[in-house]
Amino acid sequence: MSTDYTKYQVEDFVADPFFIKWVKSPEQEHLAFWNAFMSKHPSCTANIDEARQIILQLDFREDTLPEGKFVELWDGINRGNATPDLTAHPLASPGRSLHLVYKVAATLLLLVMAGATYYRYFLTVSIRTTYGESRALFLPDSTKVTLNSNSELRYTPGDFTRHHRVVFIKGEGFFAVTHQADQSNFIVQTDELDVEVLGTKFNVNSRRGKTRVVLQEGKVKLDMSGAPMVMTPGELVEFAGSHETTVKKKVDTDNYSAWKNNRLVFSRTSLLELTQVLEDNYGYKVVLDDRGLADRKFTGTCSSENLDELFEKLSIVFELDIRKSANVITIQNKKEKPKQPSLP
To answer: I want to staple 302 with a disulfide (CB 3.0 to 4.6 A). Which of 46, 197, 293, 309 is the partner?
Structure first.
C-alpha cells in the first residue's frame, strides 16, 4: 500500500526514510517524485520545507539504522517484550545490550520528535525573494501568499494553532486569506501598521517608511498608531509612519496586483515613483538627469520580465535617452541635434 504523504505532518516527514534520502543524498527517483508531489499538493510545501530544515540541522546519517528499524524498535519498546532482529546492524554486535539499543533508539526518536515540535511551533519561518523574483507559497492554514520581488515574509507556525494568525511582511505581497471555522483573525504586520482580516484578498506594500494596502475583496481593519480604520473593497490606504499621514482613495485594484501575472501597470504614475519601483523590485540605481522629469506622469503597461519594453515606451512618450551601465540606469532628455548650416 503506497504512503499517503498528503496526511503527513512535519514529524512524519522527518522520520520517513524515503524523505530523508531525498534531503540528504537525492537520486533522480527522489527528485522526480518530490518535485511532482509538491507541484500537485502545494499545501504540503510548508511542512516539507520545515522537515527539510530539521533534517539538515540535525545532520541525519543514512546508516544510523536500516529502513523501518526506528518504527520496529519503538513498537518493541511499547510492547515491552518484543525483540526485533538487529543482527544485521553494527548496533547489535556481540556484547551490546539490547536494552541499551532500545534506549539509544528511543532517545534518537524522541529528539527528532522534540526537534520537529520545537521547529514547528517556536522557530520563525522566513521566506525571501530576490530582485526580479516572485514566489507563491501556502501558510499552515492554507492561506495563499504571493511575494513580489525583494520581499520577506516571516511567521511562527505555532501562531496558527491559536485563536489568531500572525505574519510579518517587508516588501510586497498579495494575500488570499482562508476563513477559519473558529473565526480566528489573520493579522499582517508591517513596520508602520497592522492589517487585521477574517477572510479576504488584498495587496500589501511596505517600503521606504510607508505601507500601502489595496483591498480587493472582503473587509480589513488597519491599526495605525492606535487609530483603527476599516477598509471596503476597491479602496487604497497609504500610511507614512514617520509623518503619520494617511491617504485613502478608490482605485482599480487590479492595477496594484498585476505584478502577480508578470505585468507592470502604471496609471498617471510619476517618473519618480516609477524609478522607485525599478530600485525596489529590480535592484537598479536610477539617476534622473533633470529634476523636472520626476513629476512627469506615465500611463501604460508592460511585462515585468522585460524592462526594455518599458524603457522603449518611456523613451517615445517623453523623448528620453535611457542608458543602462551595470546596475545604474540614467534617464535624461534627448538632446537636440545641432542644425546643419544651409548651403548658399
So the answer is: 309
